[in-house]
Design goal:
With 568 residues, this protein is mainly alpha-helical. The chain folds into two domains: 67 residues, no CATH class; 389 residues, no CATH class. α3 crosses α12, α13 crosses α21 and α15 packs across α18. The longest helix has 29 residues. The protein starts with a strand and ends in a 9-residue tail after the last strand. It is found in: Membrane. This is Solute carrier family 23 member 1.
């Protein structure tokens, strides 16, 4: 019987120890929930990420400065964003790192976009009621398109060449913890902007906390059909679907308050706001986004370099998200080949976004990792279903536009809870670190503090190197200011440099995991979460030279007897 050795681990069917640890998850990465549950899990993940999916088209359509055509551009951007996010999510879950990760528009790209918007030749002087010539606003989208395609190719090459895999050997909890914490804190302003619009956001947060903390252990009897007989099965539905119940309850509450006239006409909690209705009315029933929908691709060196800075930040964020997702999924840290594929697939997703005119690249959404930590559902199948749903909603645009009717305060409540969980997941990585060492404590504290102080300083005192009238110098200044103003980038970078240069701790004391080593006494490495199914491994094993490809698992073929186990 054939089996396959990957690194130092073997895909063999062996009894898994520590069942009590694994029982914490209802579904692991390779598990398959029932179709109905998988669909509900997928919808739940979609609702959680809906804020990022909708905010991005709104911002880009405003930056385009399209005047009276803003609503039309917004609808097209919503459709494009949904389709691109769906494709990127499928690529990441099937060919990428193969954890339950959702890909969506990255906010790291908005810093260079805002800088681009302030340039005199691109400044918007039109109002929403002005008729703007089509060429005037499409040129902005084309320039973003060209910069995104160029920078995304660089990101793809970073993954395909194996550079990321080399770096992951040196990335430990003292890099991940400050990065994830600062990522959570970076979203604090957005959480406040959404939540402060109406008190219904507090109800959203309260309902979520009630379901997550107090009703998590409640067993609810549900009817099931088994062998043509109706049976009652106790299920902890509040643990599995807290976001669905919370958003459903509060959305219905807003709908009732809107229908009864209890909310003022300009209330952000209404479900029939003017801009929402404009998107719904303008959205066609069927529209397939396609490459080049804005016309010939343009190119601007400043935008390109700014997007390269955003790519660097996004890559660091994604590496942190990979490790965080592995942790909440009860998997070992991603091996080099998985990290390489993950970044490469993310880069390909960004290229697709550029070709279709999405405006910004994609990245791993950390709030969806928070959902996994709460629901204990780490199945990649659920995110694959989310990807399919996103594509369907993007093509049947009228249905996708329904997401725009979710009141913004409810989005704020969801973001607040999800981002707080992400910060907690980042801090939980520190239990692998020997925090009795003053070295580790100092590195952690300095990385967090510097990650907050440096961006604040840059915000108040932007860097100005050389003659500001020289175009190349202006581009360099913009690029440096963008990179230094991103909290998670600075905190993660400083933590990475200090952790790998300051002596005084072993790899074990630093919390570093060696690829292929046992995660605990007597426990074999779990490799099937990151590798391909056995039939794919079989094909890879037939070509020994493929083991040198940095984004493919090191698969070798050997013979074992049936007593040794079977392929899992």
């Amino acid at each position: 019987m054939d089996t396959f050795t990957i690194g130092t681990g073997t895909l063999e069917k062996k009894p898994l120890p520590k069942e009590e640890k694994r029982a914490q998850l209802y579904y692991r990465a390779g598990d398959y929930p029932t179709p109905l549950k998988a669909l509900l899990f997928g919808v739940q993940q979609l609702i959680v990420c809906s804020s990022g999916l909708l905010v991005t088209p709104y911002i880009l359509s405003t930056i385009a400065c399209a005047g009276t055509a803003t609503a039309t551009i917004r609808v097209k951007l919503i459709a494009t964003t949904l389709v691109v996010s769906g494709i990127a999510t499928l690529l990441q879950n099937i060919l990428g790192v193969r954890l339950a990760l959702l890909q969506g528009p990255s906010f790291a790209y908005f810093a260079p976009i805002y800088a681009f918007e302030q340039l005199p030749e691109f400044k918007c002087n039109a109002t929403p009621t002005d008729d703007v010539p089509e060429e005037d606003y499409l040129i902005r989208l084309r320039l973003l398109q060209g910069g995104l395609i160029g920078s995304s190719i660089i990101q793809t090459l970073i993954g395909l060449t194996g550079l990321i895999g080399l770096l992951t050997r040196f990335i430990g909890p003292l890099t991940i913890a400050p990065l994830m914490l600062l990522l959570s804190l970076s979203n604090m302003k957005m959480c406040m902007e959404y939540s402060e619009k109406h008190w219904v956001s507090l109800i959203q947060i309260a309902v979520l906390l009630l379901l997550i903390f107090y009703l998590a252990e409640v067993d609810v009897p549900l009817p099931t059909l088994e062998k043509r007989r109706l049976r009652w099965t106790k299920t902890r539905i509040f643990t599995l679907f807290p976001y669905l119940f919370a958003i459903g309850f509060c959305w219905l509450l807003c709908l009732i308050l809107t229908a009864t006239g209890a909310l003022p006409s300009d209330s952000p909690a209404r479900t029939d706001k003017n801009d929402t209705m404009a998107v719904l009315s303008e959205a066609p029933w069927l529209r397939v986004p396609y490459p080049g929908q804005w016309g010939p691709v343009g190119f601007n060196t400043g935008i390109f370099l700014g997007f390269v800075a955003a790519v660097v930040s996004s890559v660091i964020e994604s590496i942190g998200a990979f490790h965080a997702c592995a942790r909440v999924s009860d998997e070992p840290p991603p091996p080099a080949h998985a990290a390489n594929r993950g970044i490469a697939m993310e880069g390909i997703g960004c290229v697709i976004s550029g070709l279709m005119g999405g405006g910004v690249g994609v990245t791993t959404y950390s709030e969806n990792i928070g959902v996994i930590n709460i629901t204990k559902v780490a199945s990649r199948m659920t995110l694959q279903i989310t990807g399919v749903i996103l594509i369907i909603l993007g093509i049947f645009t009228k249905f996708g536009a329904i997401l725009a009717t979710i009141p913004e305060p409810l989005i704020g409540g969801i973001l607040t809870v999800s981002c707080s969980v992400v910060g907690g997941v980042g801090l939980s990585c520190l239990q692998l670190v020997d925090m009795k060492l003053s070295r580790n404590v100092a590195i952690l504290g300095f990385a967090i503090m510097a990650g907050m102080l440096v961006p604040l300083y840059i915000e108040r005192n932007p860097l100005k190197i050389g003659d500001g009238n020289v175009y190349a110098v202006t581009i360099i200044n913009q690029t440096l200011n963008i990179m230094l103003s991103i909290r998670m980038f600075m905190g993660g970078l400083i933590g990475f440099v200090l952790d790998n240069t300051v002596p005084g701790a072993t790899r074990e004391q630093r919390g570093l995991h060696t690829e292929g080593e046992e995660t605990s006494e007597g426990e074999q490495p779990v490799v099937d979460a990151y590798t391909f199914p056995p039939f794919v491994s079989n094909l890879l094993a037939k070509v020994p030279a493929l083991r040198f490809v940095p984004f493919l698992p090191n698969v070798t073929r050997r013979r074992v007897t049936p007593m040794q186990g079977s392929v899992r």
